[in-house]
Amino acid sequence: MFPWPKQNKTKNALSHLQVQRIQQTIARRRHQKRTPDFHDTYGKAVLAKETIFCVAYTATQTGIEGDLYPVGRVTPKEWRDQ
Fold this sequence. Notes:
Layout: H1 6-30, H2 38-61
């Protein structure tokens, strides 16, 4: 548009970069957590419990057994007639 002197272009470019840098710093600080939330406090424990539950459920549904419950494996003794 208008012919700007070279000094003003340089100053404008530098001030624009400084403003951008300040805006980026402010945005970065806004997105930082100040206090731990629920997921920071209990996240790993909940994840571990859910994993154990899912593995156990899948194992029982697919027929993998750990021989902990003998029902179906023990044959009853014959009854004597009196």
